[in-house]
From TrEMBL:
Source taxon at top rank: Eukaryota
UniProt name for this protein: Uncharacterized protein
Entry's transmembrane regions: none
Keywords of the record: Exonuclease, Hydrolase, Metal-binding, Nuclease
Composition skew (Low complexity), residue ranges: 234-251
GO molecular function: 3'-5' exonuclease activity; metal ion binding; nucleic acid binding
Stretches with biased composition (Polar residues): 207-219, 254-276
Length: 276
């Protein structure tokens, strides 16, 4: 048997509850406390959360998890789990960990900028969800108490819509085509920038065709931008089954240690028939 509990912030005046910040698991002589890091600043690496763990493993780790329906629907309340059940459960958790380890240091594109904006960060200048220009941040900026309408120097290296009108500091509308051949620097609101793949910001020859329908880009009042979806919590939580109150059939909850042996576990437990 184990004890399980969680802690989170609570404000008695507003009765607002925070997110789980710690998880405690206790047995007869030991207590484990796991701190859960808040994920407000973690961007969404997956646009549409419809992929299962097996498909994500195929993309990130190079092979699908073996999802045997018979094993998935087997008796998980048995007093003694079969070895293949133990490995099935262990691999799910291990694969989740390895996926996070693989993608945590990768840039997540098409998202709003972080609080700390380094010079050289590749971005696109967006208007109503469409990229108007591509480039990078010209100067390092730290958004300390600034609002999303604050402007930032943006070095344009490729123009997406030459006829797009930029509202200058003087309040005049000026098409991007009149700023000359990229690269050039223009001030744009931080709220209209989102990170981009550097390959999409490679300079190209200037277009000789301008848009016939010049559409003003209101930089100061637009609230349209990509990446404004609510953050999705991605915290992994280790759970333990609770014993029933059945007086005659109490099943002791034990833990089994599964050695992953580093990267050797993945190819061993993945089904080659399901590789794509």
């Amino acid at each position: 048997m184990v004890g399980f509990n969680c802690e989170w912030n609570y404000k008695p005046i507003t009765k607002a509850t925070g997110k789980v910040s710690s998880i405690q698991v206790a047995c007869a002589d030991s207590v484990w406390l796991f701190r859960v890091k808040p994920s407000e600043g973690v961007p969404r690496a997956i646009e549409h959360g419809t992929l299962g763990l097996s498909d994500i493993s195929a993309v990130v780790l190079g092979g699908k998890l073996c999802k045997d329906s018979n094993l998935h629907l087997s008796d998980w309340e048995s007093e003694t789990l079969e070895e293949n059940q133990v490995m099935y459960a262990a691999l799910d958790a291990w694969a989740s960990f390895k996926i996070f380890e693989s993608v945590k240091d990768h840039d997540v594109f098409r998202k709003i900028l972080p609080d700390h904006i380094p010079a050289g960060l590749h971005c696109s200048f967006q208007y109503i969800g469409s990229p108007v220009a591509f480039g990078h941040i010209a100067e390092q900026v730290i958004q300390d108490g600034q609002n999303n309408s604050e402007e930032i120097p943006f070095a344009v290296t490729r123009v997406g819509i030459p006829g797009a009108l930029i509202i200058t500091k003087e309040g005049k509308a000026k098409p991007l085509s009149e700023f000359g051949t990229p690269p050039f620097v223009i001030p744009v609101p931080i709220s209209l920038l989102c990170t981009k793949n550097p390959n999409q910001c490679i300079p190209t020859l200037p277009s000789l065709i301008s848009s016939a329908n010049d559409t003003p880009v209101d930089q100061h009042n637009s609230e349209d931008r990509e990446g404004n979806d609510d953050d999705i919590e991605t915290t992994s939580i280790s759970t333990a089954s609770s014993s029933s109150d059945n007086d005659s059939n109490d099943i002791p909850i034990t833990h089994q240690s599964v050695s992953t042996a580093g990267s050797q576990l993945l190819p061993t437990l993945m089904s080659e028939q399901q590789y794509t």
